[in-house]
Amino acid sequence: MSSDSSVIKEVPFGRPMIGESEKAAVMQAMSSPQLVHGPRIHEFEDAFAAMLGPDAYATSVSSCTAGLHLSYLHLGVGPGDEVIVPAQTHAATAHAVEVTGARPVFVDCDESGNIDVTQIAGHVTDRTKAICVVHYPGLPVVMDVVSAVASQKGLAVVEDCALAIGASLDGVSCGLLGDLGSFSFYPVKHMTTGEGGMVVSRDPDVIASIASLKAFGYDRSAAARTIPGIYDIARLGINYRMSEMAAAIGMVQLGRINGFDSRRKANAKVLREGLAGIEGVRLLPDGDARRRHANYCLVAVLEPNLVQHRNSIILHMKEMGVGTSVYYPVPLPLSAYYRGRYSPDPDAFPNAKLISEGSIALPIGPHLSSEDMAIVAESMSIAVKEVQ
Ligand SMILES: *Cc1c(COP(=O)(O)O)cnc(C)c1O
Questions:
Q1: Is any atom of ligand 1 closer than 6 Å to the C-beta of 62?
Q2: Distance set, CA 4 to CA 7, 128, 227, 320, 386 (Å)
Q3: How far is the CA of 342 from the centre of ligand 1 (A)?
Q4: Model-level pTM?
């Protein structure tokens, strides 16, 4: 590694945007008699749904992973069933299927990094119950083919929206494009509640079902609740609830989300321009007339001849104070767990391999400024040139 690189300023990949208002809101929630089941949860759920659109319903959960798991429980997915999922994604996308006893069936991505929709129909069998899409890394999947296959074959569509707050297709928010959508409030995602998530749908009955599944399957009808402490258990459920403290943070974060979104958008624009001249690097596509990008991060993919140097470029950028990440470091079907479980063809996911082995996720979060973007672009340019 070169020694000419001195750290001028640290540019971390992500940082939770917690301020005094979030802290005050948590203190207030902690002083209330209800730490769960309180008013903040419903306020947060209603506000989140309203942000997505007038026809949205939402129920809070303890994480996006919990939300995906509940989605499959709601759909009755279990042993013997299959769910189509993208290969280029977070472990949670497939694990949420796998823990139900069903089998995730992996489909490669296209050049954008999103699931290759042209390959979906070819993976549908008579065991398929649902198709899961991930809007990676904030770019909406063009749903036309997905929706057509789903309605032809009678399949549910589940959206993993962990990277998609602010993303929309033809003006419809991600999360409302299929039957159920799950969002993440993990600390460095678009907004945070510490840990947390939200399941959304256009169908209020679906959300009522998820709300019961996340709370032990209690019968929450009025008749069952007239006498304190007396209730019935209507179905099998689990505890994936969000606390009042988390919802209190979420309400404050929702008030700031437009500001976060503008900052991400502006950063992405500046960084795209800053990286335009770097040889050997292509950027995953921006949004377009149909697709509004949520700009979770900016993924730079190295040309094949530079892929062997990816990790040293990352380390060199780190030396220069620039934090990066890799989304995601292995095509999920080729991870140790899924390899051991299903022995997939190692050559079946060429596009996911190009991204997982040859990409660097660059920071554009709301904790960063345009000046920071210049530092990111400069450090990448130096690090890439050094290996050429
Ligand atoms: C982060 C992430 C998840 C998991 O979200 P949690 O809230 O941490 O459970 C799921 N899917 C994708 C695509 C993610 O990036």
A1: no
A2: 10, 55, 73, 9, 11
A3: 23
A4: 0.96
